[in-house]
Structure formats: C-alpha cells, structure tokens
C-alpha cells in the first residue's frame, strides 16, 4: 500500500499536537522520519503515535495503581497504630500538655504563699533548704499522678 504523505503541519493537526512537538517526537524516535521533502506517512505516524500513547498510559495506570495500593496500606498501618494505642491524636497530646503545664505553673506559684509563713522565722539555712526541697518534691509528685 502506498503511503499517504502529509506535511508536518497537517500531521500536527491530525494528532492534536504542535509542530514543535511533532519534531521532538521524530527526534526521540517515537514518530518515523519524514520521507522526501519533509512529508510524513500519515498512517505510519498515527500508528506510531498511538503505540507511544498506549504504552505511556499503561505505565501511568500501573504507577497510579501502585501509588493507590501504597496509600491504602499506609492508611491501614496508621489505623492499626491508633487502635493499638501506639499512636494518638495531636489534639489529645496538646490538651494533656496544656493541662500539665497549667498544673505546673499553679504548683510553682502556690509555693510562695504556702511557705512564706513557715520560712519567715527560720534562720537555719539547712532547715530552709529541707522545707523548700520537700515542698518542691510534693508539688512534682502531684503532677505525676
């Protein structure tokens, strides 16, 4: 069968490509080289372009399936970690940290009021230290429960 030869512009129009893209596809070996005076075999070029498009589509679909499968596996892994209490929500952590921070602040601020009357008459530095250490430890113990 005799090839039906068309210029680059008509081939580009038929394939819905720019003429520049047609040239790139020829250089990369996807489309056959033009025959004679820059004319392309329309049937051969369309078959080559379809083959190229189909192979790229299959690769993309395969890659997308792999990506989707990986994403599903990751999601299931996260769900399992949450169910087994290995992983907790950020909001829960923020709430607990905020509450513990407030308790720490309150415990430290109340030391002065509780100890002022007790320590005022004390002149023995060791005894003052012991009282302060005991109160600080009690405050810290209260936070760990």
For the structure shown, list the relevant keywords.
145 residues; mainly alpha; Arc Repressor Mutant, subunit A; two-stranded antiparallel ribbon; 5 helices; 2 strands; 75% helix
How large is the share of residues in beta strands? under 5%
Shape: rod-shaped
Query: What is the C-level CATH assignment of the largest domain?
Result: Mainly Alpha
Q: Report on the biggest sheet.
A: 2 strands, antiparallel
Poorly predicted regions are none
> From the 3D coordinates, which CATH architecture of the largest domain would you assign?
Orthogonal Bundle
Find the structural class using helix and strand composition: mainly alpha
As a percent range, the share of helical residues equals over 70%
Count of helical segments? Answer: 5
The strand order across the widest sheet is: 1-2
Average pLDDT value?
Answer: 88
- What name does the CATH topology of the largest domain carry? Arc Repressor Mutant, subunit A
**Topology as a string of helices (H) and strands (E):** EHHEHHH
Rounded to the nearest angstrom, the radius of gyration is 39 Å
Ends distance: 90 Å
How many structural domains can be distinguished in the coordinates?
2
Number of strands: 2
